[in-house]
Amino acid sequence: MTGCLFVALGVCLFREAGLFTGGTTGVAFLAHYLLGYSLGGVLFVINLPFYVFGWRKLGRIFTLKTFAAVGLLSAYVELLPRWVGFTHLNPVFAAVMAGLLAGAGILILIRHGASLGGV
Questions:
Q1: How far is the C-alpha of 102 from the C-alpha of 64, rounded, in Å?
Q2: Could you tell me if residue 37 is inside a domain?
Q3: pTM for this one?
Q4: Is 118 a member of any domain?
Q5: In the chain, at which end, N or C, are there fewer CB atoms within 10 A of the end residue's CB?
Q6: Residue 118: which pLDDT band, with cuts at 50, 70 and 90?
Q7: Per residue in 15-26, is it b (16+ CB within 10 Å) or e — as a string?
Q8: Is residue 90 part of a domain?
Q9: How far is CA 105 from CA 3, 20, 23, 49, 52, in A?
Q10: Does residue 48 form part of some domain?
């Protein structure tokens, strides 16, 4: 839960600053910015095909933990803006802090045998 919360706060910092990242989260950002779709919802859907690869190569436990982590991340990404807001957010600070939070969160998840999907 902690790893997902760290990453979600990073994602929210990116979103609030009008920035985005790469990978599946970056694709979700593009769909969110260009088409107006829910960032958390798109993030969850984009990761669905990768569970097949994870199941085959990394096993059932890893895939189930990853599925739960992505689901929790998607929920946090939608809920966090209701819990915290920013009146001023410097984009450089947001980029650095979001990267640190996301990196620490992913490290926590990997350490506990999960991921946030993607390749």
A1: 21
A2: yes
A3: 0.88
A4: no
A5: C
A6: low
A7: bbbeebbeebbe
A8: yes
A9: 4, 17, 16, 22, 23
A10: yes
Query: What is the percent of the chain where pLDDT is above 90?
Result: 66
Rounded distance, CA 60 to CA 82, Å?
A: 34
The packing angle between helices 2-16 and 60-83, to 10°, is 50
Average pLDDT on 83-106 reads: 94
| Number of independent structural domains in the chain | 1
Q: How many angstroms separate the CA atoms of 84 and 31, rounded?
A: 23
98: containing domain: 2-111
Task: Write the pLDDT tens digit of every residue in 32-83.
Answer: 889 989 999 999 999 888 888 888 888 899 999 999 999 999 999 999 999 9
